[in-house]
Amino acid sequence: MTTQHEGRYPAPPENYLPALEGVDNLWRRGVKVPVTMLCDLDRLDPDEAIAGGRDFLNDPNGLEPGTNRSRSYWHGWRVARMNRDPDGPDGIDIAHRELTRRIYWWLNRSYSDSRVAREPHRYADLERAYRNGEAV
């Protein structure tokens, strides 16, 4: 998996790199693993993710892309499908909820007037993991 887009989110700690390689190996074997960690999201190609989302919006009844497409593309397609009908049968799943929670925490953690600052107990696990050098 390419790492050319790194830097938007926290880098993975060295001890987490084998887990990310495991995700890549599963993808190569045809197993689709949703993105839940910021350090994994950071490895995706945003242009491919946007293309996947656009393709879903252009053909919402089309087949789910296979692993012949990039994981970035599949992620974008999957997110667009869930966002189309969040409460439907293909609605937002636990993996996407967790990723959304992590993105919200990361983008708002430095703002004193944010929910992250007002309700730190909701994000204490992420803050503690980040400060301890763990994958977030």
The quaternary structure here is single chain
Structure annotation, total helices: 7
> How many runs of DSSP E, i.e. beta strands?
0
Note the main sheet. Answer: none
Would you identify the regions where 5 or more consecutive residues have pLDDT less than 50?
1-5
Helicity level, as a percent range?
A: 40-55%
Beta-strand portion reads under 5%
Question: Which value, in Å, is the CA radius of gyration?
Answer: 16 Å
User: Could you give the order of the helices and strands?
Assistant: HHHHHHH
Average pLDDT metric: 91
Query: How many domains would you count in the coordinates?
Result: 1
Separation of termini?
Answer: 19 Å
Shape: globular
Helix/strand/pairing category: mainly alpha
Give your account of this protein's structure.
With about 140 residues, the chain is mainly α. The chain has one domain. It is built from seven helices and no strands. The longest helix is centred in the last third of the chain and has 15 residues. The chain is globular.
Could you give a short description of this structure?
The chain has helices spanning 17-28, 38-41, 46-58, 71-84, 94-108, 115-118, 124-131.
Write the layout of secondary structure elements.
Layout: H1 17-28, H2 38-41, H3 46-58, H4 71-84, H5 94-108, H6 115-118, H7 124-131
Helix pairs in contact: 3-4
Keywords, separated by commas or semicolons:
136 residues; mainly alpha
